[in-house]
Amino acid sequence: MILWNRRHVTAFSAVLIVIFVFYIAQRQSPETVATLINPVGKSRSSQLHLLIPATKPNRQLCRAVVSSLLLGYPVPVINGWNLTDEFDAAVSHLAKVRNIMRYLDGLPPSADDDLVLIIDGYDAFMHLPADIMIKRYFEITNAANAKLEERFGKGSTKPVPGGDQPRQTILFGGDKVCWPVDWRRPACWIVPNDTGIPEGTFGNVDGDLVHNQPRWLNSGTIIGPVGDMRLMFAATMERIRIDYDPNYDHSESDQMYMSDIWGDQEYARAVRELKLKQKETDSEPIPVGGPPDRFLSVLSPRQRTEYHIAIEYESALFQTRSGYDDFLDFPVFDGPGYTTLVERDTSGQPGFVPYTIKIPADVVASLTRLFKSIAGIHNLPSTPAKLIAQLKIGANLATKQIYAVFHCTGGKLYLDKLWPTMWYYPYAESLLRVAIRDGVRGKPVSERIDGRVWTAAHTYPASTKDDMGFKAAGAWADLAGDWLDWGVLCGPDEAAIFEGRV
Questions:
Q1: Does a structural domain hold residue 7?
Q2: Is 22 within the bounds of a domain?
Q3: DSSP code per residue over 403-422
Q4: Which residues are paired to 116 by β-bridges?
């Protein structure tokens, strides 16, 4: 069976169109041909791919799939399903890298500008709709590239052949500690200090994990363009090939190799910045920082170091748990304009004054659409506007962000407690039914963002009817292309997933 991707469906049509345009080109003016190829006002489109590394079913994987589907994300691809040996994530975290690399290598060059979102299968689930994820991705990367231009000069981040210009296109979740811990590694000491979060936001600057800023890379949540992700994962594979030491305690950590790639990138950027600031010299500048016995990145003259990697610091996209418990809450936004008053002093700094957090207007609009979509099949207790003001929505009180994905780094038993607190939990079955219907009908993931309409890279099997209900939910197994149906992924856990329905 072939993964149900719209590119497969349209491939033959594309060939016919090319033949047709070539035929017309022999008989029409250049202006007519240009209009045929790119009609005036026609929106460009790109696809969103959702990859979830996992090998076997369990309740948490079901939650990851269900939360994705009901919030309008594409049907996910489960990377590594039932694979063995070096491709079995239960044996090695490096299987995640190998399996995702094979998926990315299987995509055509025409997919390079698509977005691919990767979340760990056993400790993460969605919190906000897909359109918010896409919109925030571009807002964050645009702001990050503007910061880079302040460092390296106007126009320094513009794409060029070869891709060696500093840019920020791949976003990882942030960690409050460098893992694996070895402060000699460039991935631990050369990382940027400017997170955009004011000093003291998390408490005294004393090195305590809870008080740290999220300056380090966490590989459990990633989003970026297919083309850049393919290069970054290929570099990670090469790093594994060169550096793998079976006697090292953390040799199976995918996060170590990815963060080492990022560390070399940041080291090379620091050297580049020093060269811009200093007068001509024969010696290579050496960045400052790190412990006395620090490691320096050893880079060959033609070695590629720029992979466009950045950290999403403020948890607008990805919220990790480790070190954040004191700063997370589920407030009700029942104040004027969907606001909540925060009276809890999370930083412990002098002069605390209560402040408000507001649900952004685009999130309100997205949630309103969701509730309106189920009004015909779910007896809602109130209007969408009143419902939103009654919801308990997860928020980071320190950064004042409502996150899009929650990633439970640390103890996993917390997930059983967390799932029933999700704002969509009472409406999950109805939201899932409508999302499946919309997916079968080909509804876009979002309207135009970054000049493009976003569609799902993968949808439901062709045999799926739009009235089959929530049991039509499922996912694709990447290499085999098998459809993993509801019974396989969620059957034993159905009651636990929906028992809070109203």
A1: no
A2: no
A3: -SEEE--S-STHHHHHGGGS
A4: 49, 224
